[in-house]
Amino acid sequence: MIPSILPTYNRAPLSFEKGAGSWLWTTDGRRFLDLGAGIAVNALGHAHPALVETLTEQAGKVWHLSNLFEIPQQTRLADLIVDKTFADTVFFTNSGTESCELAVKMARRYWSDRGAPERSRILTFTGAFHGRSSAAIAAAGSEKMTKGFGPLLPGFTVLPFGDHDTLREAAAAPDIAAILVEPIQGEGGIRVLPDVCLKGLRDLCDETGALLIFDEVQCGVGRTGKLFAHEWAGVAPDIMMIAKGIGGGFPLGAVAATEAAARAMTAGTHGSTYGGNPLGCAIGARVLEIVGDDAFLAEVNRKAGALRQRLEGLVAAHPEVFEEVRGTGLMLGLKCKPPAADLVAAGYAEEVLTVAAADNVVRLLPALNISDEDIAEAAARLDRAAARLETAAA
Ligand SMILES: Cc1ncc(COP(=O)(O)O)c(C=O)c1O
To answer: What's the pTM value of the predicted model, to 2 decimals?
Structure first.
């Protein structure tokens, strides 16, 4: 019999009832070190006092207002994003998938508005993940996500990751609206696009006029030690998708864009019932105030260095388990030799939570404010998890 929850997830038999900082407690009283943070969502860990305060304060005032009215919390968060990024304007969503939908619509509308509606094709890359809507699965193109869901939304071409010649050729076609890319592929296995490639993509888009869309749903909001990952490369997109960390655990996403890219999105062209609600935006603004602070980001970088050093030590100590460490800041991956899922399971036994990704990588996406003590504890638990796999293989 089908369970009451649609069985689209293979869930671990762990049930958590309480969280604080980087720790989660199960209903049977065990304490787990959370290095997954809800897949890069709990940017400030669990039950951060400032976010609890903002949530409860706003909950006592007003939760939801239609976008038919002014929402000051929304304006405040939009102003913060505009102030801290390349963007001139922001639309709020509830998830990364919805941000993908709008990014695609905005790029197509941009060309339609310029009298070139045939420029509707979006170029993407293998290993990408942009969400689970019809547009987002067509954008990523992997059979795992698209099988059985055809006909796929047309107008997407998925190019081989890292193949510059094929990209140049594809981008020269007359129907290209935009190039959509994650500066660091998350689900794809923490595959970092080198700065030179991000710069190359910017140049290519400047040459052809195509819009450049960065999907910073997973790598944004301080995760890499800059507020947004593309800042490391010193280039900016025309449109950026945001979600996950921006809400610190509250469902919140956004699309940030330049005025030129967004100009055709006039009244009535897009909307959302919940997107930009006062609760979400009040929390988002608090998250951004904390994470966007230079001193906070400096700490993320320092901690990222400490965690990375310990992970390099683990790779050296367990050559049969680990191949390498990848990633930037606190978006790190351990490329494994045995199945990545086995390391995740061994982690459960050692009461540490990690997240598997493609390319046989285990992701570490801890809270950005993880303590030095918890970083040491993370390494100790992962060391024991790796030892379990060695014992099992012996
Ligand atoms: C890079 C990227 N884009 C988009 C999404 C989709 O976001 P959501 O699950 O909030 O719809 C994700 C989710 O993992 C993601 O990692």
So the answer is: 0.98
